[in-house]
Automatic annotation (TrEMBL):
This is CopG family transcriptional regulator. Residues 68-91 are annotated as: Disordered. It comes from the Bacteria. The lineage of its organism: Bacteria, Bacillati, Actinomycetota, Actinomycetes, Kitasatosporales.
Length: 91
């Protein structure tokens, strides 16, 4: 792992939390990989979604991203010292 990423993680969670943070990140990536495999298998089975479905899915993701950005801004104005993302400890 690049030294800059190691330093960024340690700055966020401390040296003692590094392993748990990395473990949680690996778990999320494994889940994403498995989801991608499932989606590919379903696409192979029933075909690609229609352009309308893909467009609607893109709209939904944009709406979700906007809501998440609004929440981050609200948390930042509530005394989170302007952090772009809330400081959450990996579990």
């Amino acid at each position: 792992m690049p030294a800059g990423r190691v330093a960024a993680v340690k700055a966020r969670v401390g040296a003692r939390g590094f392993s748990a943070y990395v473990s949680a990140a690996v778990e999320r990536q494994l889940q994403r990989d498995l989801l991608e495999e499932l989606l590919q298998a379903k696409e192979d089975e029933i075909g690609r979604p229609s352009p309308e479905v893909l467009d609607r899915a893109a709209e939904i993701f944009q709406e979700a991203e906007a809501l998440a950005a609004d929440e981050r801004r609200a948390e930042a104005t509530e005394g989170d010292e302007g952090a772009a993302w809330p400081d959450r400890k990996a579990g």
